[in-house]
Amino acid sequence: MSLGQQIAPHLPFLRRYARALTGSQVEGDRYVRAALETIVEAPDEFPRDISPRLALYRTFQAIWQTTQVAEHDAGSAEGGEAIARARLAKLAPISRQALLLTAMEGFTVEDTAYLIQKEPEEVSELVSEAISEIETQTRTRVLIIEDEPLIAMDIETIVRDMGHDVTGVAVTRDEAVALAMEDRPGLVLADIQLADDSSGIDAVKDILNEFAVPVIFITAFPERLLTGERPEPTFLITKPFQRETVKTTISQALFFDQATVPAGE
């Protein structure tokens, strides 16, 4: 099996991680392309003594870490530490990287330690730190678009346990838009396929035409929305999901949304 065939099944999920890490489809996919270009340019340097998935993520992490140092230095050169700090404030800190890799991507603490070049004990501490940050995060109001009652109940329970309010649960496109217009949420969680064969994607488009709001899509077929070939979601939860995955994704979406709000607002 060629190297390309070995890593191809893992690319959609690397895009999921990269987008959540950067808070942007464009930026996340750019880093994934850079990782692939690195592999193509020097295939003999691709780690062969570990799984292709772990090696792919390690290649990505190496590029990410190098780029962040370079951008911090560039910020310092352009306007001192103030610009450098402003740039860093918009990036996911290493504690959130550890949380994303474990809770979203399902890596073990040991594998995550390898990926971010830390000791396993440090990874556990970083994950605990990130979880503590979630507990202090600003609360918001959440609209849930989900036509499966049990799944909707699970999501609503997770959202409320995090301290957020639920503005409503919609099962169709029209209902979702109506609820959003009636009580504007600060976050939307949307399934792709809805009860009347309408689309959660279309519902979100209608809502975003009226006002800006961070969105997390929920789907049993994540590969379809992680191709990197067209405009696609930044935040994605795969069905069936784990409670910690939902909490982490919600926290990450709100992290970037709050980072764009000017100080004092």
From TrEMBL:
Alphabetical UniProt keywords: Phosphoprotein
Matches recorded under InterPro entries: Bact_response_regulator, CheY-like_superfamily, PhyR_sigma2, PhyR_sigma4, Sig_resp-reg_PhyR, Sig_transdc_resp-reg_receiver
Q: Please name the GO terms of the biological process aspect recorded for this protein, alphabetically.
A: phosphorelay signal transduction system
- Domain Response regulatory per the UniProt entry, residue ranges: 141-254
- Enumerate the PROSITE patterns for this protein: RESPONSE_REGULATORY (PS50110)
- Any coiled-coil regions, as ranges: none
The family database entries (SUPFAM superfamilies) matched by this protein are listed as: CheY-like
Q: What is the protein name given in its UniProt record? A: Response regulator
